[in-house]
Amino acid sequence: MQAYVEKVIIPQYDHFDKAHQRDHVEMVIRQSLQLARQLGADQNMAYTIAAFHDTGLCKGRERHHLVSAEIIRADKMLPTWFCREQIETMAQAAEDHRASARQEPRTLYGRIIAEADRCIEPLTVIQRTIQFGLHHYPELSREEQFQRMMTHLREKYGRGGYLHLWFEDSPNAHQLEQLRRMIEDEQAMRSVFNNCLP
Questions:
Q1: Which of 58, 46, 50 has its CA nearest to residue 12?
Q2: Which of 1, 9, 114 lies closest to 71 in space, CA to CA?
Q3: Which pTM value belongs to this model?
Q4: What is residue 20's predicted lDDT score, i.e. its pLDDT?
Q5: Is pLDDT of 94 > 80?
Q6: Which residues contact 188 (CB under 8 A, 6 or more apart)?
Q7: Count of Cβ atoms closer than 10 Å to residue 96 Cβ
Q8: Is residue 158 over pLDDT 80?
Q9: What are the structural domains, with CATH classification, of the chain?
Q10: Which residue pairs from 10-16 have beta carbons closer than 8 angstroms and sit at least 24 positions apart in sequence?
Q11: How many alpha carbons lie under 13 Å from residue 65 in its C-beta half-sphere?
């Protein structure tokens, strides 16, 4: 299974935007496996969900979580290693992983992938947000890129933002608080922005 994922699935991330490249999926796999071990979940399922979770980006960002689930359900090799119920659980986890989802993931595996997909190391979050803006909105001026970054960070990570953590004692909780304090200091954020985009 791992050989198949490494040869066929992970290379797909080489074609996505800079925030969703191979390093991203590898980080999500590591964090998923760590959470699965801590929680006594099936590590093969956690690994597979993590590997497939953003494959739906091949059809665009808006529905990528739903397309990822369709890819899991349609994959011809997964029945070699998993029963139909496990494949459906993995597909549902992919559907539920999106940070903007309003409801809690339906299963433990959905919570694992949703949490593992959160890279809340503050500088990494800021750099990925800048990269996304440059890639998708290259016509924006430097100041407009800064304002777009701040709007996104506040809406997603700020207090009252739409990002939810599903495990209170995860490493992400401390880092999210650190990021929130940074977002609340616009002068500090401008300095970070200028260092990331000289």
A1: 58
A2: 9
A3: 0.78
A4: 83
A5: yes
A6: 182
A7: 20
A8: yes
A9: 2-116 (1.10.3210.10), 122-196 (no CATH)
A10: 10/51, 12/55, 12/58, 13/54, 15/58, 16/54, 16/57, 16/58
A11: 16
